[in-house]
Structures are given as C-alpha cells and as structure tokens.
Design goal:
Layout: H1 2-48, E1 56-60, H2 66-80, H3 90-100, E2 104-112, E3 116-123, E4 128-131, E5 135-138, E6 158-160, E7 164-165, E8 170-171, H4 175-192, E9 203-205, E10 213-215, E11 221-223, H5 229-241, E12 250-254, E13 261-264
Parallel strand pairs: 1-3, 4-6, 6-9, 11-12
Antiparallel strand pairs: 2-3, 4-5, 7-8, 9-10, 10-11, 12-13
C-alpha cells in the first residue's frame, strides 16, 4: 500500500518534467529552424544579389608603371567581371600574377566587399650582378631576375666566381650555390655597417668561400672569409680609421686573423 502511494506521489512530478522537456525540445527545434532559415536567406542574398558581383580590380604596393597595371587590371576584370565576389578563385588570380610577373616575390589576393578584387604584390629587387656569360641580376635570395631594370646595373656590385644556371633562375647547386649565399650574406652585413657607405663595395669574389673577398671603390681588396662578418668588418673599420694608412699604397687588407694583415701595393 505504501509503494502505491509513493508511485502516486511521483506521478505529477514526472508528468511535469515531461512537459518541461517537451517544451525545451520544441523551443530548441524552433530556434534551430529559425537559424537555418536565416542562414539560407543570408546565403541566397550573398550569392545571388547583384550587390556582390565583381566590378573592379586594384593592384596595390606595386612598382609597375600605370600602363602595365591598367593592362593587368583589364585582364583580371575580363575574367571575373559580373561573377559573385564570394566564388572568385583567389589562388587562381595569384597564379596568374606570378605567371605574368616572374620577378614577383609575393602576390596576395583578397576580396574587398562589396565588389572589388585587391592584389598586394611584392617584387624581388636586384642587389648584385653575377658575372657569367653575361651579367645576371640576383635578389637577396640569389634568384635571377628576368625583368630587372638595367639602368640600375651600374649601381650594383659584381659577384665573380659563381656559375649560374639561368634556366633554373639560380646558381648551380653545390659549392657555387653556397658561395653565392655567403656572398649575399656578406653584402647584407656590409650594408648594415654605416662606415662602408663612404668606401663603397664594387665587387665580390666568391670562387672560394674561405677566401671570400670584396673590392672597395678605392681599389683596395678586403679578404674577409666566410664567417664572423660583423667582427671582421669592425676590424676593417679600425684599420681604415688609422691616420697612418695610405690607401694608394695598399693592395689588400686581410681581416681573417686576430690582427689585420696589410698587403702593400707593388711599386
């Protein structure tokens, strides 16, 4: 008899819980249906509305002349004009830019709502000329540039002793490749050394990294090797600062050792 009373007492509570669960389930289902409808409507608006159809192309941060930029803009616009902005193959646009401009280092493409494609481009810049069958302009990574401005060549240092393979746009693998990398690393460190601005660097010999050397505008050769560039350039600075040094009488300065070695010019 007690058990029956307990069951009877529990029944209203169970019924109330069931009602609450059903109400929660109904509310949740209604909310989910609402979300789905909103998403479908938003998707329909974004993908079917004329408001989001490509109408313009912009290339930013580019050193290209206005005629070239206009031509590229027209090419991209002709391919995508009127298409929904959210369906644009951005990687495809970037691939086109890399193919059109082999000297581009970066080509980042994005959409700018509501109707514009924006491309940010970064180009490689020549930092040196590698002397081979002809002069090959290379950037900081040692990549041969196909469209470098030849008017700037006279301002670039010349690297000797490195065999190039222009078909691969880089130095031949192995020692020549490593030596070019070391030469470019030296060039970067020289640019950081403010005192070298007054002396200039017109050529580097990278045939042997251990004997890596460069020639200054005054004709003096500096033997620096392949390591400790910062410390060795500091040694060179102190040597050049010495008032007793007569540059016209010096053939080379070797800073690969604890003390600099001065080689006199032959009479």
């Amino acid at each position: 008899m007690a058990k029956q009373k307990r069951k009877a007492a529990l029944s209203p509570f169970v019924e109330q819980m069931k009602e609450q669960l059903v109400k929660i389930a109904v509310n949740t289902a209604v909310f989910l249906i609402f979300i789905v409808v909103v998403v479908l409507l938003a998707q329909a608006f974004l993908y079917r509305s004329d408001y989001f159809r490509v109408e313009a192309v912009e290339i930013k941060n580019s050193p290209l002349d206005s005629a070239t930029i206009s031509f590229v803009n027209v090419q991209i616009l002709n391919a995508y004009k009127g298409k929904n902005i959210f369906t644009i193959n951005l990687k495809g646009v970037a691939s086109y830019l890399y193919g059109r401009f082999p000297d581009a280092k970066e080509a980042t493409v994005r959409i700018a709502l509501p109707d514009k494609i924006v491309a940010n481009m970064k180009f490689r810049r020549a930092v040196a000329l590698v002397r081979g069958a002809k002069y090959y302009p290379v950037d900081d990574d040692g990549v041969v540039l196909l469209n470098a401005n030849e008017a700037l060549f006279k301002f670039l240092p010349v690297v000797d002793g490195v065999e190039m393979r222009p078909s691969e746009r880089s130095a031949v693998r192995g020692a020549p490749y490593r030596n070019l990398k070391v030469a470019l690393e030296l060039l970067r460190e020289v640019k950081r050394s403010k005192f070298m601005a007054g002396y200039g660097l017109i050529a580097l010999n990278a045939a042997d990294a251990k004997s890596l050397s460069f020639t200054m505008k005054n004709g003096v050769q500096v033997k620096i090797g392949f390591e400790n560039f910062k410390a060795r350039l500091e040694m060179l600075r102190k040597v050049l600062k010495d008032p007793r040094m007569v540059m016209d009488r010096i053939e080379y300065i070797d800073v690969r050792f604890k003390d600099a070695v001065i080689g006199p010019r032959e009479a």
